[in-house]
Design brief:
Elements (H helix, E strand, L loop, with lengths): L13 H5 L3 E6 L17 E2 L2 E2 H10 L4 E8 L4 H10 L7 E6 L4 H10 L7 E4 L9 H12 L4 E7 L6 E2 L11 E3 L7 E3 L3 E4 H10 L8 H6 L4 E5 L10 H18 L2
Parallel strand pairs: 1-4, 1-6, 4-5, 7-12
Antiparallel strand pairs: 2-3, 6-11, 7-10, 7-11, 8-9
The chain binds cytidine-5'-triphosphate and the ligand C[C@](O)(CO)[C@H](O)COP(=O)(O)O.
C-alpha cells in the first residue's frame, strides 16, 4: 500500500492497528564533536562494546520491533555491517545499513527511504542514547498503535529554564527575557514513534533545521503526545555523559550478575 492510500491510524479499526509492523531507524552518522576527538561517536566503546551496538540491542529487545535500519557514518557503512555481524543480536530482527548525511535530519530521511513498504510504524532512535530501557520503547510503540501520529518519551526538568537574548558582544552577559513554567516543560528523548506516512510527509514538507523529528510533525499541525521517558535514556553528548553511561552499565551488569 502506498503512503498516500494508507489509512491514518485514527481511521484504522483497533485490530488492524494491533497488526502493525514496526521498524526502528537509528541515526548513527554523527561525528560526536561535543564528545571530543576520536572515532565517530556511535562507534566509540561503552563497556567495551560500540555505543551503536547497545542502541541496536535496545531497539531489538522490544518484541514489537522486527527491523532495525542503521544510518551509518557516510564512509562507514561497511564497518557498521561488520560490527553488526560480529555482535550477538536477536535472530527474529532484520537489519539494514545505509550511509547517512550531513545532518541528523538528512540521516533520518535516508533511513526512511530505505524502509520496505510493509512497515507502518517507525521509531527514530539516537545511537547516542544507548541505554534506553525496553519498557520505554514498548510504551512509545503502544501509544502509536493506539492511534497517536507522533509519540515522544520525555522526563520532567530538574533545572529551571531561562529564555535569553543573544549577548550583545562575545563575552558580554546574556539578558534573560522569560522563565517558562517548569512544571509544563519536558526534556524529550528517543525513540520517538510515528505513523510512517505522517513521518514521511513531515520529512518531505518541513525544510527548516529542527532538532527532533516530532517537531516536524508539530509543524504539520498534527498531534504529538508525550509518554514517560526514563532517566537512563539520556543522550551521550559530552565527556561526562560517557562517564555516567559507563556507571549505569556497570550497575546493570552487577545487578544482572555478569
Ligand atoms: N549528520 C548526522 C548527525 C547526527 N546523527 C545522529 O543523530 C544522533 C543525535 O545527534 P548528536 O547527539 O548531536 O550526535 P552528533 O551529531 O554526533 O554530536 P555532535 O553534535 O556533538 O557532533 C546521533 O546518534 C548521531 O549519530 C546522524 O545520524 N547524522
Ligand atoms: C532528538 C533528540 O535526541 C531529542 O532530545 C535531540 O534533539 C537531538 O539533538 P542533537 O543536538 O542532534 O544531539
Amino acid at each position: 500500500m502506498s503512503d498516500e492510500s494508507r489509512p491514518s491510524p485514527a481511521e484504522m479499526p483497533t485490530d488492524t492497528r494491533a497488526n502493525t509492523r514496526t521498524a526502528a531507524v537509528i541515526p548513527a552518522a554523527g561525528r560526536g564533536v561535543r564528545l571530543g576527538p576520536g572515532a565517530p561517536k556511535a562507534l566509540r566503546a561503552l563497556g567495551g562494546t560500540p555505543m551503536l551496538i547497545h542502541a541496536v540491542r535496545a531497539m531489538a529487545a522490544s518484541r514489537g520491533v522486527s527491523l532495525v535500519v542503521v544510518v551509518a557514518p557516510p564512509d562507514g557503512a561497511a564497518e557498521v555491517k561488520s560490527l553488526l555481524d560480529a555482535h550477538a543480536l536477536p535472530e527474529r530482527t532484520d537489519f539494514l545499513v545505509v550511509p547517512g548525511g550531513e545532518t541528523r535530519q538528512e540521516s533520518v530521511r535516508l533511513g526512511l527511504e530505505a524502509l520496505p513498504p510493509e512497515y507502518d510504524i517507525v521509531l527514530v532512535h539516537d545511537a547516542a542514547r544507548p541505554l534506553v530501557p525496553v519498557d520505554t520503547v514498548d510504551a512509545v510503540i503502544d501509544a502509536v498503535r493506539e492511534g497517536a501520529p507522533a509519540v515522544v518519551p520525555a522526563v520532567p526538568l530538574a533545572d529551571t529554564v531561562k529564555q535569553v537574548e543573544p549577548a550583545a558582544a562575545p563575552g558580554e552577559p546574556e539578558p534573560v527575557v522569560a522563565t517558562p513554567e517548569r512544571a509544563r516543560l519536558r526534556a524529550v528523548q528517543t525513540p520517538q514513534g510515528f505513523d510512517r506516512a505522517t513521518l514521511v510527509r513531515a520529512h518531505e514538507t518541513v525544510t527548516d533545521d529542527v532538532t527532533d523529528d516530532a517537531s516536524m510533525v508539530e509543524q504539520l499541525g498534527l498531534a504529538v503526545v508525550v509518554v514517560p521517558g526514563h532517566e537512563e535514556a539520556f543522550k551521550v553528548t559530552r565527556p561526562l555523559d560517557l562517564v555516567l553511561a559507563e556507571a549505569v552499565l556497570a550497575r546493570r551488569r552487577l545487578n544482572d550478575g555478569f
